[in-house]
Amino acid sequence: xxxxxxxxxxxxxxxxxxxxxxxxxxxxxxxxxxxxxxxxxxxxxxxxxxxxxxxxxxxxxxxxxxxxxxxxxxxxxxxxxxxxxxxxxxxxxxxxxxxxxxxxxxxxxxxxxxxxxxxxxxxxxxxxxxxxxxxxxxxxxxxxxxxxxxxxxxxxxxxxxxxxxxxxxxxxxxxxxxxxxxxxxxxxxxxxxxxxxxxx
Length: 200
Hints:
By secondary structure, this protein is an all-alpha fold. Helices cover 71% and strands 0% of the residues.
């Protein structure tokens, strides 16, 4: 378990510069959902250096080396939040979703007051079509941090998908097609298409 001081960071905001440094494969893997990639927490200087090294390796295309760098650092300090979080992000981008799911689930247990791991769990669930689970995780994130912009946007995307699913089920349950329902289906589908093609 992390030390108590690590559970109470002074700054829980997203570091936007780190988000830009790592986000490469997320649009292809996870569509329109926004992934939280960096946390502004204090970190020991040696571990910070290893995190920077791993990020440089990742952006240089040395992905397996970057993962190995983080794993080696975590063997020395297994409770280091920022290293664990970065490893979870890299596992997600590599398509290793079960491993990423395990990392972020553990983070929600060890740091239950942080919103970002819940957001990333929701991204994984949504990418696998588990919309109800994604909604639950996003609601947890927003209960912790109501102003979390990515979680708010992701919740909107999930609710749109849930609306489309409900409209599809309603149409299937009717004996004859409904014109107004068909219009709702088309408009919701078109909106989802637009959100899915936006760059991040």
